[in-house]
């Protein structure tokens, strides 16, 4: 009987302790949420945003009051991912986050930086998509978040007038177009960087196909440079300067692959053509270049 009573008392103490911890956690969360909202209001950070600059302080205060407090205690945690449905807008209260587009780091966000504003506005298909990934860099990051649903409730309640809503949508569309342009630029840059010496070498061989065609190209190039109407004879011993070869490669790759090769990559192409010794020459005979490209 005593053992039963003792177990009952222990379970009761554990339950009371758990309840007390939950109450403390709720109080702390409430305090942090209030502190975060107060911090954002005093900073007037939303007034400096192109999305919310048209709103007066009353409307801005109503938006902030609807925001929820989020604490993330994890490094490299994805707050949002590129391509996912976007329906939450964020303000960083403390900590640092990294922004990346197509795997390329584009920005660092810190205290009182905002992101994801376009998530408040649906596109023609009724959805918005994340155009960037944002993940935590610090071990501890605190955010305020506003869901699209709460924002829509604000609009429905008349808290924001029609003129403000129209301006918000206009800015959202401008930001969307700017983000799309940035994404395209990053994709193009990544594509340029991904072009290897081996792929260029293979593409040249497939495009030129045989040694006779290559020598015709070299002949035209030399005649154009020297202004010779037709007296240039090209054979396997004809030397081609580095710059001449690079001009030819650049034109072929731009015409066939629609790719502009970076100067650093072009230098690596020439070094590869010079052979495995790692020593770079100022010129190479056509026969050697033909073998390098696999022409016969």
SSE diagram, text form:
Elements: H1 2-43, H2 57-65, E1 68-72, E2 78-80, E3 88-94, E4 97-101, E5 104-109, E6 114-115, E7 133-136, E8 141-147, H3 148-157, H4 162-194, H5 197-208, H6 211-226, E9 239-241, H7 242-256, H8 263-274, E10 283-285, H9 286-293
Antiparallel strand pairs: 1-8, 2-7, 3-6, 3-8, 4-5, 4-7, 9-10
Helix pairs in contact: 5-7, 5-8
Structural commentary:
With 296 residues, the chain is an alpha+beta fold. The protein has two domains: 2-191, Jelly Rolls, CATH 2.60.120; 196-293, no CATH class. It is built from nine helices and ten strands. The chain has helices at 2-43, 57-65, 148-157, 162-194, 197-208, 211-226, 242-256, 263-274, 286-293, and strands at residues 68-72, 78-80, 88-94, 97-101, 104-109, 114-115, 133-136, 141-147, 239-241, 283-285. The chain starts with a helix and ends with a helix.
Short structural description:
The protein is an alpha+beta fold. Helices cover 53% and strands 15% of the residues. The chain has a four-stranded antiparallel sheet with strand order 1-8-3-6. The protein has a four-stranded antiparallel sheet with strand order 2-7-4-5, with no helix packed on it. A two-stranded antiparallel ribbon has the order 9-10.
- Strand fraction equals 15-25%
Separate helix tally: 9
Structural class: alpha+beta
Quantity of strands, as a count: 10
Let me know the average pLDDT: 81
